[in-house]
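Backbones bend. Shown next:

***
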Amino acid sequence: MSKYLKAGGDALAKAVEKVYESGKTDYHLEPLNLWEGGAPVGTVKPGDGVIFCCRRGEREVELTDAFTDPVFTGFSREKLDPLDFVILTMYNEKYTYLPIAFAPSKVQMTLAQVLSEAGKTQLHLSESEKFAHVTFFFNGGNNTPFPGEDDIRIPSPKGVAFETIPELSLPKVAETLADGLRKGYDFIVTNFANGDVIGHTANDDAKRKAVVAVDKYLGETLKTAREEGYTVLVTADHGNIETLRTGDGKPHGAHTTNLVAISAVGEGIIRRTNRGKLCDVAPTILAAMGLEKPKEMTGSPLFGFEKTGKVLLLILDGWGLDAPTKENPLATEPMPVWNALVSENPTAQLDASGPAVGLAEGKTGNSEAGHINLGSGRVVLQDDVRLDNAMKDGSFYENPVFLKTIRDVKARGGALHLIGLLTKKSSHGSIDYPLGVLKMAAAEGLDEVFVHVIFDGRSTQPGSAPALLREFGEQIEAIGPGTIVSGVGRGVALDRDLNWAKVERAYRSLTEGKGEVYEG
């Protein structure tokens, strides 16, 4: 057992409950650090090892850079050396120099690669909240643009709560998109982020305003696309904003398992099927451009096209299909463009969750799975399934990267640090992963193990952190070694907008114990 207080779950839970009194929510919680005897407990030091128990990547990159980048410029810091820093999955292809517990197989012959090899020009455009999705994920885990590909990132609003700006940066995205259409790229993929970003909030009014804004700019985009001779495919990556309230009347701020629509706008388009999957979209685009799909793509075209040429793929993020009830803003708000789109054009429904996108049965869709399936033209097995399979068959507990880190830290007399998301079902992680590594550390006789919690606030209900912490602490205590020593909100630690001030606060919490102090 650690020489520190039990597992620390109850102590941090009490600190969170106190912070709640000031109106703070899980997602935005500033760092909380355990101190004893006038000093922080369990900070990361040279000679230690860190395992970042989160998956996906676009939100994990900046904190990983702060620890590992030898030429880091985000803020002033001295690189901790030596330090083993393990990432759970490949967050970015630049991390070939890091130990990766579950390294991926990069998807080959994605839509972007096929178009590039055919000599086509392409534009990938979104605001920063979804930029990784139309580039890294859409391109099958490839972070480098293909020849002929231009990537444009429009900054998302900074320093304000997203629900106060339901339009986000959509006006600028739409303006830039119109410029791209007029330039005549052979293929354009863009993402309207509002349905997911605003859908994750608990503000019903903001969600209603968001869908109206999307409808407005969807209309402007379709008009310009028609003028420039584009075939347009409008679809979504998963559901979210179409459900305002849960069954018990609480705000609904999570992804759904709902189907999504795909509508085709252009001349001479014939619907081939009523139902498909996201992986059918890339073959559909190739058909619309008059190109053959590669053998690697297992999806099938959803429509037939008498006329082929330039294509715009417009992804309405988090835009699912649900019953037309008062809890569905797509049904209650004035949506003339959307309603005409799905009623007057060839339209099919797509499965965007569970095994259809490489996730476990019953698992809600997410932006990573959605975009990688959209761009790859095949069902791509997701990290959560790979990891869950490894835990079920026991190979997780034999992972050589984990074992080497634990043994090296023990040999150096250092401590092991586990950074994990406090949730059971997020696409970014699960508490099962740090619990699994804790079992490995216990088996190896490593006592000094510290757990650093990232509060979710997206896949978890608002205000649920204390209960989850107490449950997590009990599970840790049953294993043996391990003490929860800090916590910080996902909106601070897992920034993806180069807001280095936020990332620095998380980093200083982990390495110096800086934050609001609580005691055991």
Observations:
- The longest helix spans residues 204-227.
- Residues 9-103+385-518 form a domain with the 2,3-Bisphosphoglycerate-independent phosphoglycerate mutase, substrate-binding domain fold (CATH 3.40.1450.10).
- The chain has two domains: 9-103+385-518, 111-379.
